[in-house]
Design a protein that fits this description.
This protein has about 325 residues and is α+β, with helices and mostly antiparallel strands. Helices cover about 45% and strands about 20% of the residues. The chain folds into three domains: about 120 residues, no CATH class; about 120 residues, Immunoglobulin-like, CATH 2.60.40; about 35 residues, no CATH class.
Amino acid sequence: MEKSGERSLLGIINEKARKVRRSRYSIPIYILTVFFASIWLILINPCLMNILLPILAILVPYKLYDENSLKKLLVVGITAIILLAFTMGSYHVGILYDQPARQLRSGPGALQNGTIDRIYGDSNTEFRFTVEVNLTKVGAAREDITLYANISYAEAEGIRREDYEGYEMSPVNDNDDENDIMKYEVVVSGLPERLFNHYFSLRKDVPIEEGDFSWERTSLGFGPVTLERRTALGMITLQQSFSTSVIFLLGVGLLWLKKRMDKSIVESTEGLEEKEEGLEDYCPDCGHLLEGKKECDRCGWIKEPEDEMYDDEGEPG
């Protein structure tokens, strides 16, 4: 009973799949199936998007719906990849651009209250970086330290993270005798249109061992941002779509090669069968064409029925 139930269930699924394949809305159905299946799997492990999406874009139409048209597979795959890359890019860009500014400090505590006056702007915007230094915790005189505001490319999907440039900061006040706090700042402008992170670093200009210097740095903060939101979305969508499409097209190419090999095997088998059937129309003694006759007109050879060539016990008669 269980086997019959399973067979009936598989039969129902196959019948539904055939109806979808014959439907005029087959391509939209394929795309939506791939899209929602990919969303579910990406929520489990987002790192597998580049691998899972091309696989699903091929297997869902080809295996689930038994679709054999490579043209439809290409349309479904490329459309689903772009749609999903745009969706995930929008989500990622929303997280990036909604990050609030926060104060930065170093682990040992010599650097504190590191801030940027604004996060968003354009290439002409001036960004003011400010940080406070506790000279007591530094363990060096004011003239023996150098402060830097460092900018690096933000780490985003499709956007690499790497250091961009460091800007030397200048003191803006005399040190407070009570807690020995110094305030440094620098104004940066003319940045290219990108997403940036920032952090502050301190260098003791007193050599420790053979020219080495002691460094201390703060945690990483988001900003400045000189790139429009829609431009960032386009960059991420394009980068993600391109890398995923390459893997998808490679899979479609392998599938095309498999179909070509299967077709060649079938054609070769059919050719052999036709030759074997053709051989039966010639006389085995003289090679004369029998034309469907049981007796050869040239040499008189007679074709005997196979059932008369053997006796009841299966031995040759």
